[in-house]
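On clarity, I found the account of how folds are encoded harder to follow than it need be. Since the whole study asks how a given chain folds, the encoding of that fold should be made plain. For illustration, here is how one protein appears when written out as sequence plus structure tokens:
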Amino acid sequence: MTASWSIGGEYMESCNCDYLCPCIYTNPQGEVTHDHCIALMVYRIDTGSYGDVSLAGLKFALVIHSNKVMADGDWIFACVADEGADDNQRAALTEILSGRAGGRPAMIHDNLVGEFRGIAFAPISFEMDGLGRSTDAGLFSFAISGVASRTGNGEVISIDNVSHPANSRLALARTREMHLHGFGLDLDLSGIGNNGHFAPFAWSN
């Protein structure tokens, strides 16, 4: 039986689309920049649990490969979960990320995924330095820089009321580098300034 769960914390993302990714301002009905989109999302759980199993302090990641229009579905989809999780935490993360436990991951699986390539366990880093974010999840890594407002207040430019699994408000960022070698997918980008985002997130079933 699926347990009640809720998790919240911080998320960051890089994708191979040019900045600004067309999916963000087209809900996401517009065509991606290239023939397909590869998006890498990393989530740091600061608070949360699955039933009586605490998930605070763990991390997970989503790997998405879409065709020309993301909303059309038929995604290749895979996940990376925190290698530091104990057996109970691994079971809980597996239930959530597989979509079996409901909530946002279930919506993704039920409506958008054509091929689920499973869940790998690996160490996942989540680094924050001012407007910079970086991660290494074993099978992939990326580094992004938030786009600072020219008002001089030191804050990042954000976009509101978007249709995105992490949050309806996303900080805008550009990618310094992005690498993926896993789940049958390969990508290396550096110095192109492709699209990125970060935001708080909160999910539950």
About this structure: Residues 8-204 form one domain.
